[in-house]
Request: fold
Amino acid sequence: MLAALFFIGALLSFHPEDESLLSSLPWNDISSAEARNVADNIGNPFGLLGARLSAFFIRSFFGYPAILPGISLLFWGWSLFRQKSLKSALLFFLYMLFMAIDIAAMFGLTSMPFSDYLSGTIGRMMAAMLSTLIGLTGAWVLLIAVAAITSFYMGRGLISIFSENVRSARDNLGKPLGALSGWIEKRRKKKTEKARLKEEKKKLKHERNGVAENSETAVPAHSDSFAQPASPPYREDEEIFPAPSEQTGLPDLPQSYALTGAHAGVSGEPEMIISAGVHEKEADLDERRLKVKTKDREPYRFPSIDLLEKVPDDDNRIDEQHLTESKRKLLEKLNIYKIDVVRISTTVGPRVTLFEMELAPDVKVSRVKSLENDLAMALAARGIRIIAPIPGKNAVGVEIPNGKPKTVWLRSVLQVEKFKNSTLKLPIVLGKTIANEVFIADLAAMPHLLIAGATGAGKSVCINVIISSLLYACSPDKVKFVMIDPKRVELFHYQQLKNHFLVRFPGIDEQIITDPQKAVYALKCVVKEMELRYECLEKAGVRNIGDYNQRLPEEAIPYLVVIIDELADLMITAGREVEEPIIRIAQLARAVGIHLIVATQRPSVDVITGIIKANFPSRIAFQVASRVDSRTILDGSGAEQLLGNGDMLYQPSDQPKTMRIQGPYVSSDEVEAITTFIGAQNALKNMFVLPVPDLQKGNGASMSGMQDRDGRDSMFEDAARLVVMHQQASVSLLQRRLRLGFSRAARVMDQLEYSGIVSEADGSKAREVLVNSEDSLELLLRNLD
Ligand SMILES: Nc1ncnc2c1ncn2[C@@H]1O[C@H](COP(=O)(O)OP(=O)(O)OP(=O)(O)O)[C@@H](O)[C@H]1O
Reply:
């Protein structure tokens, strides 16, 4: 930038008299007495270099228009300084260069007094050539056409780049002013709220007096109180944007507005307050420090947000007619069942609208809940969900699908201040809530996530979004991935992360595991890694990975995110063998920074077993076929009412109720763009290799997952304990309890026989268990080793 400023300054300070002084001085002479003498006498304040540069560019190049590429160099410097993509700077440079040549040639065609300085040698040469070739008029037409076409094609891109830059600069400048006006606005809101409450109190007092006077006359539940909202349908700390009239097609109103009279339907109905939801402040993610040095001193560049597709300008208008219609049908149906509603407020989310209804005091909440199916029929809509009551509110919620669903794009949820400034350890964007608020969770706090839903409901897209969020937020020093993809097609894009983010397994070439037996081995490697990490923390005298990394930053341990995209496939082929390490990791790995994300399309109890569920307190349910499936995932119904395409219920580990969130959409092309970008960078020198698991230990699996070192089956010890515990040695018991196939169970039984734990097979008679206590068995097993 400084060089560009020098260049522009030098050109602007061009003095024609300097040329005669410089002509006698050789180029390389900068230290002789003559050079000093010339430097003292030249008019250009930028010294000998400035004078030479200006003379050269103005005389021999394009004259003063040479300043234009200089200006673009300034922009180039700015982009480098802000670590932004240099693509736009290059485009701008080319544009300015074209324009400089074009303008210089135009000046060359004129015979103004200063046209020599304005066109330079190149400009004049071009002008002479063109006027000879196509005549003066032709030359003008051609040059103007070239300028117009270049400006049209390059200008469009540039305008959007500049407006983005201007916006970000304005945002930066506007922050202090915004904070001040926010404070003033808050105070104003508080004042109006106080006045309103006072007014309401007065009214209530007045009403009570009235009731006391006419004690025989019953007051209908929906009398006067319909007219005024009791409290604004937003929390004080939420920022709500006023829907501008051109967007919503409604008059300019504050954060929320009421629909009554004609719009509300029959007069006397409760008024409806429409809340426009939370407005997330946008932020340019590329303004962060995008380039970092990894621990092994390799430069690493975070993916630019420009790799994600631009968010199309959606029609943001609220479909007021659809809302009014839904409200009318809702009230009609409730009226039939004699359920009086005092007040309704609505929040329009990306896929569904939440109608919050305050019921008359004598209405039982459970009555509304039982009407779910009737309401779905009355509104002729799928995906109606009743939340009775809304946690922390004196209201019942009914979620009704919007007439026109909106896609939430990944780019739109990443380029918000909340994500850019996030201090979470492993921030993952789950989507937008009903109030249009971007929801970001911390995987490190979850600490494991179970994702389940019917096929095609959006699980894989959700996993892609989670991985993308982590790639935008964390460097390869901070997080590593273990990817297990029995379906083989879901995670293959991430192969490109092999030199940066994917761990290596000892003895296995693949870094994305697709074979179930190898998956068991990989999970056992993770268990071993977990044990080693615990030892490490113990030695350092700290309780968790966060403290460890803070105390010993040069030895920082990366977080390990283990992703399994399809658990059912693994459970069917490897059964308990796979369940066991998953449970061990889920139970213990939180403190050492190992987190599991497990997805399944079979939400049945043989896949999501009780013990798996108990160890995955954070769960996401996508659309499922039945209420039973929903209960298997969430311990409650609701997921069967979801709409698919990323519509999810999120059960946080620290809250009793689920949240409805619309997941963002990221296409395979976008994922590929991110992974290719990362994959094209220099590979890290030190790859993260997981340790070899303890194969000879009881449950250890070898790489084939079947046999340990002594040729015994990896389930041998489990089988021994089982038969001794039950004092019953039958192949079917092993099959049932250890989920083994018949031939494998029979082979294990033979091995038990050779080890003297069970007797020989004797025709149809059952084998005898020869070890009668668990203690003796443990002794025997130790001796076998
Ligand atoms: N958040 C979303 N927004 C919009 N459309 C989505 C979203 N998520 C998924 N979809 C649509 O649903 C389709 C299926 O999604 P996805 O592949 O994630 O399903 P799945 O649950 O993983 O299915 P399977 O279990 O068969 O792999 C996507 O191709 C996309 O068209």
Observations:
- Confidence is low (pLDDT under 50) at residues 210-267, 696-707.
- The domain at 716-784 is CATH 1.10.10.10 (Arc Repressor Mutant, subunit A).
